[in-house]
Write a structure and sequence with these properties.
single chain; about 650 residues; 29 helices; 17 strands; about 45% helix; globular
Length: about 650
Amino acid sequence: MCGFTGLFAPRTARPNARAIDPALLHRMTAAIAHRGPDDEGFYTEPGIGLGFRRLAIIDLAAGHQPMANEDGTVIIAFNGEIYNFQSLRDELLGLGHVFATHCDTEVIIHGWESWGLAVLDRLDGFFAFALWDRQQATLLLARDRLGKKPLYYGTAPDGTLAFGSELAALTPVPGLTDRLDPVALEDYLAFGYVPDPASIYQRIRKLPPAHFMLIEAGTPLPPPRRYWTLPQPTTPPAGLADAAAELRTRLDKAVAARMIADVPLGAFLSGGVDSSAIVALAARHAKSPLQSFTIGFPGATDERATAAAMAAHCGVVHTSEVVAPTDVIDAARHQAEVFGEPFGDHSSVPSLAVARLARTGVKVALSGDGGDEVFGGYRRYRWHAIADQARRLLPDRARRALLAPIAAAYPKLDRAPAWLRAKTTLTEISLDSAHGYYRTICKLQDAERRGLMSPALRSMLDGHDPAAGIVAALDTDADPLRAAQMVDLATYLPGDILVKVDRTSMRSGVEVRSPLLDPALLAWGMGLPSALKLRAGQGKSVLRTAVSPLLPRAVLDRPKQGFVAPISAELRRVAPRLRGTLLGPAMLDTGWFDGTAIGRMIDQHEAGQHDHGWKLWHLLVLEGFLARHTGAPMPDATPVLVA
């Protein structure tokens, strides 16, 4: 678990390759030192340079990178963990390969020598890596199936390809971060993150999950190629009991595979079913008492008591901490430092806090991420299924003719009880399934988003529609639940959830492993009938049934809740400073925003006419990025979201 950087001249024919600037490579690598506080290393030759920062997890003494094979013809910089490396190592030893370490990294080198690109199909784990084959003058960049580990790349004006584990690694490269991408900016306002393969910068891209690039010296940069897709569902178990039993076996196997480490290992623990199940299973496999970690926020929904009870139930060593609140505006602006581009998911703030707490005791932590995506836990899945049922009752023309006008006329009641907020529901049902789901996950709806933009920015967008990606990803012929899940696996999971997990944990020097996102378990879980996931209006039914023997009733019966902070109330309290921040030079000097429209949104929120709390939070995050991009003052300390 680490971070790497690199420079490559792909259009330069060998042996006349130009030299790589070692000072630039060192600056790139220093920018991601937080990802690997234990060691650093470099490899350079004409036309190629690799930099590396290491967080030592396995074979602590011999895992120095960049790592080469025995004759120095294949060199790799690797970020991740390969869970089946021991069996791959045995197979490669049988083929005559010579190993110098017991690291998982080395199996990729020798696997490439024996199997070529097919090595990607054999790797069970999460990874991003750069592999240089000197004899073939070929660079391989690859990313794991779900996108747990990041890989950014961009071509500088002089033709040099730069790549690295975070955007921060590419910022020292001249010409890569000069121009922002207005399309990516609109996508951020729509979703709260910049979806793959774009970044906020025009010249920098993200290698998509389950993709690789094979780049030969002297040839143009090729497009990324996919090497894995979710397998078609197999025949599911006969009923809930059988499915739950098989799920418990599969999950236990996934947890056990993630317990391999030569350093202390623990787990994040909230009061929810997912993390509690992981802790219960991990405690059974731990060779020494497992450590678990929970944070709480004064005045917010506090999960510490439930987590402590769960830890006692499993016999693990538990640590909890109350995180002191600070200013909400500083907390939003600080997102730019952690993520390198606008990232609006507010749950990243407690995620960073719990990762820092875990680092006081462990270097590896298991998490419960993935349960909602794989087993249908999000409330929006239930609403989408209900909306699809309603759509089937009315022909398309009738829905558009009858419901759309009613929805348009219905008042927007942000602060009313849920049963009175029919405007959103009616609007979504009047749309087709894909556009309805898009509205469900959209942070700033189209008209409202465009209303905040200047005419200049709207013209730059040239008709771009953020909904297009959702429409392309949603299979209208599939079961509504599976269709929504597949959209999230393609967009929200790699663009939001896994970005949050990676950046907050690596900022703290902790490797996070997510058993529920084991690719084989995910493929099996996605193939289960929706009736085993959504039952009696509750999601994750099969998962709850599977882990019920492991958990106390207080955890099983506890309603789903995420981290909740009174953002709306706090932004009303600091409205004068909020106005000064969002109407300051970082936003308005771009010429991209309508200051009058932003001011009107602040006024409506302060007066209690509309609840724009989370929309204003996303604008604050964007302002913080723009301020950092232009060199404006930023918060000195790392803030924690007010609670």
